[in-house]
TrEMBL record:
This is Acetyl-coenzyme A synthetase. Residues 131-514 form the AMP-dependent synthetase/ligase domain. ATP binds at residues 431-433, 455-460, 546, 562, 573. Catalyzes the conversion of acetate into acetyl-CoA (AcCoA), an essential intermediate at the junction of anabolic and catabolic pathways. AcsA undergoes a two-step reaction. In the first half reaction, AcsA combines acetate with ATP to form acetyl-adenylate (AcAMP) intermediate. In the second half reaction, it can then transfer the acetyl group from AcAMP to the sulfhydryl group of CoA, forming the product AcCoA. Belongs to the ATP-dependent AMP-binding enzyme family. GO terms for cellular component: cytosol. The gene is acs_2. Mg(2+) binds at residues 584, 589.
Length: 694
C-alpha cells in the first residue's frame, strides 16, 4: 500500500468522532492535519440555495432535474453516456457500442465511432453560421486586446495543421508544446488534434530538465515553443530552455522546433532544426481536411506528479474527453451563447486543456485568454478585466482568491468593490480545497451574493469535473464540492475498499468507469493499474488519491487532501519524491525528505528536511545554503517546486528499520509539539534541530 489514510481517519475514540460516526470504526481526529478542515465543513450550516435567476433556464434546472439524470444513469449506465455523446458531439462515423470493459481497467468508450476534436470545436459552429462569433478575446500582459473569431481560429488551426503535415507529422505522432498563454498556444494544441497528432503541453515554468524528461518519455517529433514569454512586465526565456533541454541525451527524437515570435527577442538558431512559425504557416492553405480518428485515439498526454520521482504521462482519449469538456461547460457552468467565459488557468495544466483549449470552443462560447498574472500592474487586474470584458462566468483557483483577499485588505483600490462586477453570473473554483472564509469572500465580494460558487473537484486524470455543484440546482455549502455529476459513482471507502457511512472520513474512489477518465500512463500500463486500480481495493475502484468525507445530512463531499506523497502547492501538484531526488542530486546533500505543511495562501507549502554531507550548517551559512538549494530545485524542476522551508539536521528521524518517520516530519513542519513516541529514535536531539526553519 503506498498511500495513507487521511490522518483524521484512523480508528480510535475521540469526542469529535462520537458526533459524526455512525457505527463501525469511529472517526478519530488523531490530531490530524485535516481535522480542522473537516470539522469546519461538517459544522458548516450556511446553505445557499441556487438563485432563482440562475435556476430559470439552467441546463440542469432544480434538484429534481439533477436526480432524474442520476436515475437515468442508474437505469442504463451505458445508454446514458451514449445518449449524451450523440447529443454533445458530432461524429463522422457513429459509434455502435458505448462502454467496452473487456480489458478492464483499460476501459474504452465509443471506440468504433470516428470524430475529430477540432471539427467539433470549430467547423461545426462555422457550418451553423457562427463563423463571425468571437472565440477568443486575448488580453496581453500589457493590456492590449485582440479578438479572434471562430472563422479566423479555424483558419489559423488549419494553416498550422498543414504546416505540421508538411514537416511529416502524422496521426499518432507526438508534439510537445512549450508555450506561453496565447492564441498561438491554443492554435498549436488544436492544430495537432486536427491531424491526429497527440500533443503534450509542458507548463512554461518547468525547467529544461523537466522539459527534456517529458520530451523523451513522449518521444516527441516536434516541439512548438516561443522565443520568450511575458508575465508581470518581465520577459522570461522559452526557446533557450528548449535548446538546453534538447542538448541533453536522448533528444534526437525531436526533428523540428517551431518558434512563435512573441517578443522578437534574440534567440539562437539551429538552421537544420528550427523553423519560424510565421514562415511555416505562410504558404499553407487555410483548408485542412481533418483526420477522422477513433474515439479512443489519444488526443493528448499531460504529465503530472505521482508518488514516485518520475512524472506520469496521463493519456486521454478524443471522444470521451471531448464529451466531458463540452458537457461540463453546460452542466457545471451553464454556458450560454451570451456568456463571456474566463478560466484563468494556464494551458500547461489540465484546467487549461479542458476549460480553455477544448471546453469553451466545443460549445462555441466566447472566452478570455489572458497572458499575464493576477497581480500586474496591480492586484485588481482580474476585477478590471471582468469589468472591461463583461465576464459572466469566472473560474479561478482558491490560491488566487486568498492572495487577492490579502491584497484588497491592504489596498481599497484593488478591492473588487472598486469595480463594476455586475456582469458576473457564475463563479467557479478549482485545484485545491477552498476554505469557507475564502468561499464566503468570493461569494459576497466578487459575486455580490448573486453568483453561485461552483467548487469543482477533479484531477488531471478525470479529464474534467467529477464532483461539483450545479449552478441551477445544488444548494451550496461553503467548503464542500457537494455532489457527483450524474453518472459519476463516487464513494468514500476504507483501506479494503469497503463502503464507509456518511460522516466517516476515508478514501475517495469512483466505482464505475466514466467517458473522460485517464486511459493509460504513457509507456507504463503497469503503473496505470497499480496507481489507479490497486488490488488492495479489489482492482476495480478508481483511486483518486484524495481523502474525503461526506456529511451526514446531505451526503455532500468534502475533500480532505491527498493521501499519497503528492503535495498541492498553490493548486500545483507536486510529488515529494521528485523534490527529494532534485535535492539529493545536489553535491552538498546527503539525504533529504520533503513534506507539506498548511499555508494560509498556497494551501500547502513545501518543507524540506536536509542532511548535508559536510555536517549541519548554522547561522548565515545555513541561510546561504538554503537559498542555494532553492535555486537548485528551481533549475532541476522549476520555480514552483522551490521549498519554502528548509531545515538542516545531522540526520533524519528514522524507525529501527530505517524508514523515515514522515508523520513526525509533518508535525515538525507545522511547528507542533511532538507527542508521538520517539523512543525508537537513534538521536532524539535532532528533533530540536529540525524544528528550525531556514
Ligand atoms: C488534485 C488534482 C483539477 C484541475 C487542477 C488540479 C486537488 C482539485 C479540488 C477541489 C479540493 C481539489 C485534489 C486533486 N483538487 N480540485 N475543488 N477541492 N481539492 O489538477 O494537478 O491533477 O490535481 O487537486 O487533491 O487530487 P491536478
Amino acid at each position: 500500500v503506498n498511500w495513507r489514510l487521511p490522518s483524521g481517519c484512523a480508528t480510535g475514540s475521540d469526542p469529535v468522532a462520537g458526533r459524526y460516526a455512525q457505527g463501525g470504526a469511529a472517526f478519530n481526529s488523531n490530531k490530524g492535519q485535516w481535522m480542522s478542515a473537516i470539522e469546519s465543513t461538517l459544522q458548516e450550516h450556511r446553505v445557499f440555495p441556487p438563485p432563482a435567476h440562475v435556476v430559470a433556464g439552467a441546463a440542469i434546472s432544480g434538484m429534481d432535474a439533477y436526480l432524474e439524470l442520476v436515475a437515468e444513469a442508474e437505469r442504463d449506465y451505458e445508454g446514458f453516456w451514449s445518449r449524451l455523446a450523440r447529443e454533445q458531439l458530432t461524429w463522422q462515423t457513429p459509434f455502435t457500442k458505448g462502454l467496452d470493459e473487456s480489458n478492464a481497467p483499460f476501459y474504452k468508450w465509443f471506440e468504433d465511432g470516428k470524430l475529430n476534436a477540432t471539427y467539433n470545436c470549430l467547423d461545426r459552429h462555422i457550418e451553423a453560421g457562427l463563423g463571425e462569433r468571437t472565440a477568443i478575446i486575448f488580453e496581453a500582459d500589457d493590456g492590449a486586446v485582440t479578438r479572434v473569431s471562430y472563422g479566423e481560429l479555424l483558419d489559423r488551426v488549419s494553416r498550422l495543421a498543414n504546416g505540421l503535415r508538411s514537416l511529416g507529422v502524422k496521426a499518432g505522432d507526438r508534439v510537445v508544446i512549450y508555450m506561453p498563454m496565447s492564441v498561438e498556444g491554443v492554435v498549436a494544441m488544436q492544430a495537432c488534434a486536427r491531424i491526429g497528432a497527440t500533443h503534450s503541453v509542458v507548463f512554461g515554468g518547468f525547467s529544461s530538465k523537466s522539459l527534456h524528461e517529458r520530451v523523451v518519455d513522449a518521444g516527441a517529433m516536434v516541439v512548438i515553443t516561443a522565443d520568450e514569454q511575458i508575465r508581470g512586465g518581465k520577459t522570461l526565456p522559452l526557446k533557450s530552455i528548449v535548446d538546453e533541454a534538447l542538448a541533453l541525451e536522448g533528444s534526437d527524437v525531436v526533428k523540428h522546433v517551431i518558434v512563435y515570435r512573441r517578443t522578437g527577442g534574440k534567440v539562437s538558431w539551429n538552421e537544420s532544426r528550427d523553423i519560424d512559425l510565421k514562415t511555416l504557416v505562410e504558404g499553407q492553405s487555410n483548408v485542412c481536411e481533418p483526420e477522422w480518428v477513433s474515439a479512443e485515439h489519444p488526443l493528448f498526454i499531460l504529465y503530472t506528479s505521482g508518488s514516485t520521482g518520475k512524472p506520469k504521462g496521463v493519456q486521454h482519449s478524443t471522444g470521451g474527453y471531448l464529451l466531458w469538456a463540452a458537457l461540463t461547460m453546460r452542466w457545471s457552468f451553464d454556458i450560454k451563447a451570451s456568456d463571456v467565459f474566463w478560466c484563468t488557468a494556464d494551458i500547461g495544466w489540465v484546467t487549461g486543456h479542458s476549460y480553455v483549449a477544448y471546453g469553451p470552443t466545443a460549445v462555441g462560447a466566447t472566452q478570455i485568454v489572458f497572458e499575464g498574472v493576477p497581480t500586474y500592474p496591480n492586484a485588481g487586474r482580474f476585477w478590471d478585466m471582468i469589468q472591461k470584458h463583461k465576464v459572466t462566468v469566472f473560474y479561478t483557483a482558491p490560491t488566487a482568491i486568498r492572495s487577492l483577499i490579502k491584497a484588497s485588505d491592504a489596498d481599497a483600490k484593488v478591492h473588487p468593490r472598486s469595480f463594476d462586477l455586475s456582469s458576473l453570473r457564475i463563479l467557479g473554483t478549482v485545484g485545491e480545497p477552498i476554505n469557507p472564509e475564502a468561499w464566503m469572500w468570493y461569494h459576497a465580494e466578487v459575486g455580490g451574493g448573486r453568483c453561485p460558487v461552483i467548487d469543482t473537484f477533479w484531477q488531471t486524470e478525470t479529464g474534467g469535473h467529477v464532483i461539483t455543484p450545479l449552478p441551477g440546482a445544488t444548494p451550496l455549502v461553503p467548503g464542500s464540492c457537494t455532489l457527483p455529476l450524474p453518472g459519476i459513482i463516487a464513494a468514500v471507502v476504507d483501506e479494503t475498499g469497503g463502503d464507509l457511512v456518511n460522516g466517516q472520513g476515508g478514501i475517495l474512489v469512483i466505482k464505475r468507469p466514466w467517458p473522460s477518465m485517464i486511459r493509460n500512463i504513457w509507456n507504463d500500463p503497469e503503473r496505470f493499474k497499480k496507481s489507479y486500480f490497486p488490488e488492495e481495493l479489489g482492482g476495480r475502484l478508481y483511486l483518486a488519491g484524495d481523502g474525503a468525507v461526506r456529511d451526514v445530512d446531505r451526503g455532500y463531499f468534502t475533500i480532505m487532501g491527498r493521501i499519497d506523497d503528492v503535495l498541492n502547492v498553490a493548486g500545483h501538484r507536486m510529488g515529494t519524491m521528485e523534490i527529494e531526488s532534485a535535492l539529493v542530486s545536489n553535491p552538498l546533500v546527503a539525504e533529504a525528505a520533503v513534506v507539506g505543511r498548511p499555508d494560509d495562501t498556497t494551501g500547502e507549502a513545501i518543507c524540506a528536511f536536509v542532511v548535508l554531507k559536510r555536517g549541519r550548517p548554522t547561522g548565515e551559512e545555513a541561510t546561504k545554503i538554503a537559498n542555494e538549494l532553492r535555486a537548485w530545485v528551481a533549475k532541476e524542476i522549476g520555480p514552483i517546486a522551490k521549498p519554502k522551508d528548509i531545515r538542516f539536521g545531522e540526520n533524519l528521524p528514522k524507525t529501527r528499520s530505517g524508514k523515515i518517520m514522515r508523520r513526525l516530519l509533518r508535525s515538525l513542519a507545522k511547528g507542533e509539539t511532538i507527542t508521538q513516541d520517539v523512543s525508537t529514535l537513534e538521536n532524539p536531539a535532532i528533533l530540536e534541530q529540525l524544528g528550525e526553519a531556514k
